[in-house]
Design goal:
Two copies of one chain form a homodimer. With 352 residues, chain A is α+β, with helices and mostly antiparallel strands. Chain A has two domains: 226 residues, Creatine Kinase, Chain A, domain 2; 102 residues, no CATH class. In chain A, 48% of the residues lie in helices and 16% in strands. In chain A, the strands form two sheets. An eight-stranded antiparallel β-sheet of chain A has the order 2-3-4-5-1-8-10-9. A two-stranded antiparallel ribbon of chain A has the order 6-7. The longest helix of chain A has 48 residues. At the A-B interface, α9 of A face α9 of B.
């Protein structure tokens, strides 16, 4: 099943959700733990396996309205685990852990249910553009269905109990992946991100906790889950946080075009030319160049391909995907060459 | 006359002289002063004008076997002076001075005779590739012809007397412009240039004294002119200095291709792609990219254009030439855009 992943197009890859000029994707996740079982840090291997089996069997037996696939993450190869991470289906922590663990994935990859990550169960819905309400409705539906067959650790005073106190309460984390290249270029990024942090939001990189920003992508998420309703958290994102950052970025793009259009066009067309010509290129540089190309598509400077193509390249140029496409494992030095060849071939037809 | 310059092709621009894979051009110059007149630093304005008139009239009346043109450098516009400098027809010092001064140039630009630079007369012959003997024969012929009508300051003990002691004796400076990109890339450049300095050679940039290396071009010249014959100085360049540096660079190119051909190809094709796509570019970056393209032509990686085209672009992309082509003066910021447009248009047809 994993071998098919590298060629699939997830829903969020299409990139046509609302506000897709800035909002790449929306994500909601719920943290849940089974009642009567210790948190994972207190579990021995036998207990972890027990939790895994219990959740896997219960969930796979549920009708969640989508075709589900189970992946035994502990038994997956390192390359497959990396592949799942690059597709945002599991976290880096889940990939790297040494516990018995797994993930259940829906066919279009909008739903992923990690078992034995930090909590017994982490449910995630990921959608393209700004679709927090849609994502929330979906995860609420899944949560409700699972709650019928599972007994969660719940306190009437605190709400859902979780391994880390920051998740106690709703267990909800809401996040949006924003593409903020213009704020970076105008030097206003730090101010915008500081404003986000002042709103008690966490700012992270492309692959969540502990990862750097890559290609001007920033994940903005709530940090407080206790004492607020799920709807309030989502509503604040939709009516305050996202519009504010979106507005910042859009204004920065207008300012760039008004004050020095040539400068930004230069960055865009150089980026395209480099991806069309390089003979070796790192994953980091690729993301940076694709970030400029994405901006070029949004500004109408590049018309020879669309956002879906940019998203696909961003994903397929990642190390694990490249190796899957090639059909064998390769080390970094050779990977840079294979990546350049792959990008050149894919971008051959695109004129500047 | 100057307005034509920017469209002419000097002999050295053709770039087809011997050893042109490394030796861009060969240059010899003689320093001479008129007897009975003080060195320029001791002259007043009247005396300088007198020297200028005397030399101009005498030289223009001589049959040197070439059509000669006189340019009044003091009255030339700053842009025209810069144009002459970019074409290596006058030195930066000559362009910047505030004395009455001029230059006499042959039609194919191999010969340039600066009046009132550091010495009363500086004669230069510039040729493409390694043509030191040819250049020396030509300057010797010119010197002999002029000596019939001019009375030079000469000491039977020291030889020709010059304003700076380092030129006393033969008054000869021999130099070659070398293109050493592979030594730079392999990190051996410093060692090679140190070896040159150990041989009492001066290492300078593209525009001679006091200029930085630009695009991996280095001018290597003798520093000692006293107590050695002209033929000895030239012979040492031809049999020891140039072959040694040439050999270093060629071996470095072979090593690059043997150890990491992709790496060097990457630099070459990125350089071409950038010049074909940039919307703004500095003169410095242009020279660096053209240096890689020149290497690409020599390594057979780029076949869509030749060395002459690279040389022409290197020259025409310089600030004064660009402004001459455009027909008006423009500031740096706009120049970067005009340069990029010019390069894009010129390189449109060249595929990678």
């Amino acid at each position: 099943m994993i071998s098919d992943l590298s060629n699939r197009a997830s829903e969020w890859l299409c990139g046509i959700g609302p506000m897709h000029d800035v909002v790449v994707s929306s994500r909601v996740r719920l943290a849940r733990n089974l009642a009567g079982m210790p948190f994972l840090s207190k579990c021995d291997a036998r207990q972890k396996s027990e939790i895994l089996e219990k959740l896997r069997i219960a969930i796979m037996a549920c009708d969640l309205g989508e075709k589900l696939t189970y992946v035994d993450v502990a038994r997956a190869t390192p390359l497959d685990r990396e592949l799942l991470t690059e597709r945002h289906l599991i976290s880096r922590q889940h990939a790297a852990s040494d516990s018995p663990r797994g993930v259940i994935i829906s066919d279009n990859e909008t739903v992923s249910l990690m078992i034995n990550e930090e909590d017994h169960l982490r449910m995630q819905v990921l959608r393209s553009g700004l679709q927090l309400n849609e994502a929330f409705d979906e995860i609420f539906r899944i949560d409700a269905a699972l709650e019928k067959v599972l007994n969660y650790a719940f306190s009437s005073r605190y709400g859902y109990l979780t391994a880390c106190p920051t998740n106690v309460g709703t267990g909800l984390r809401v996040s949006v992946m924003l593409h903020l290249p213009a704020l970076k270029l105008t030097g206003e990024l730090d101010r915008a991100l500081r404003a986000a942090r002042d709103m008690k939001l966490a700012v992270r990189g492309l692959y969540g906790e502990g990862t750097d920003s890559l290609g001007d992508f920033f994940q903005i998420s709530n940090q407080i889950t206790l004492g607020r309703s799920e709807k309030d958290i989502v509503e604040e994102f939709l009516s305050v946080i996202v519009p504010e950052l979106l507005n910042y970025e859009r204004k920065a793009r207008q300012a760039l075009m008004a004050h020095d259009a040539t400068d930004i066009e230069d960055k865009i067309f150089r980026a395209l030319a480099i991806l069309q010509s390089a003979r070796k290129i790192t994953s980091k540089e690729t993301m940076y160049r694709l970030s400029m190309i994405r901006l070029g598509v949004h500004l109408g400077k590049i018309t020879s391909f669309d956002l879906k193509a940019v998203n696909e390249l961003s994903l397929l140029a990642q190390p694990a995907h490249l190796q899957k496409i090639l059909g064998r494992e390769i080390q970094d030095e050779e990977r840079q060459k294979v990546r350049a060849d792959f990008l050149r071939q894919r971008l051959k037809a695109c004129s500047s």
